[in-house]
Amino acid sequence: MILIGMFDSPFVRRVAVSMNLLGMAFEHRNWSVGKDFELIRQFNPLGRVPTLVQPDGEALIESTAILDYLDELVGPEKAMIAAGGPERRRGLKICALATGLGDKAVSLVYERVLRKKESKVWVERCEMQIGGVLDALEKTRAAIGKPFWFGEHIGHGDIAVACVLRFTSEAHPQLFDAMRYPALAAHAAHCEALPAFQEIVQPLAPPSGK
Ligand SMILES: N[C@@H](CCC(=O)N[C@@H](CS)C(=O)NCC(=O)O)C(=O)O
After folding, report:
1. Is 63 in the pocket of ligand 1 (CB under 6 A)?
2. How many angstroms separate the CA atoms of 130 and 108, rounded?
3. Rounded CA gap, 210 and 179, in Å?
4. What is the predicted pLDDT for the residue at 105?
5. Ligand 1 center to 152 CA (angstroms)
6. Residue 107, burial from CB neighbour count under 10 angstroms (0-12, 13-18, 19+)
7. Nearest CA to ligand 1 atom 16
8. Which residue, judged by its Cα, is nearest atom 7 of ligand 1?
9. Using CA atoms, how far apart are residues 207 and 115, in angstroms rounded to an integer?
10. Atom 10 of ligand 1: nearest residue by CA position
11. pLDDT tens readout for residues 125-149
12. Does the pTM exceed 0.90?
């Protein structure tokens, strides 16, 4: 399989870290959504990453849909989210909050680098949404006295939250104060110390818009 997209993207990184943890080999195309847009569009008409190209040429898109397929491939024993019931619903919600936060953090980066003048209304809205999600995730994580969100084993929610926190801290350091979010900071540190995370990391290099 070929994974397209840079590891500074929290969405690409969550897929790559999961593949690493699941022991799935992949080739990596370190293509930028800026300068390599046309290359990416050859595989995904949206021109977005992550895009995961299967051996038969089929291209999967959207991190959550890609991970859903990978879980299906490895089977319910190794899948990194519960197969059904309340634990699956709660797991999907953690993932949705984390990736939604990631969408807002990415949107703020594009606002900064691609526009001549930022929209104050949009920036304030995104910052409020990011703060709201961080508060909600902090409260939930603080109430869980376990190594990971759903117990002893790492899952997609854990990975999504850690990847998005790293991206947000690098792109907008003023929006993530570890003192205000101690449970999330500890969660991120715990995940980032794992070999699967340390092997999949790339400093933030946003598109320049030129
Ligand atoms: N919901 C998507 C979000 C992916 C996403 O926003 N990727 C960014 C890079 S971090 C991208 O492709 N940006 C270019 C664009 O949206 O045109 C997912 O989970 O895969």
Report:
1. yes
2. 10
3. 37
4. 98
5. 30
6. middle
7. 48
8. 49
9. 12
10. 9
11. 999 999 999 999 999 999 999 999 9
12. yes
Contact by Cβ (8 Å): 200, 26: no
- Who contacts 197 (Cβ-Cβ below 8 Å, separation ≥6)? 17, 162, 191
Going from the Cα of 89 to the center of ligand 1, the distance in angstroms, rounded, reads 23
Ligand 1 and 106: CB distance under 6 A:
yes
Centre of ligand 1 to C-alpha 189, Å, is 24
For ligand 1, the distance from its centroid to the CA atom of residue 11, given in whole angstroms, is 7
Q: Is 47 in the pocket of ligand 1 (CB under 6 A)?
A: yes
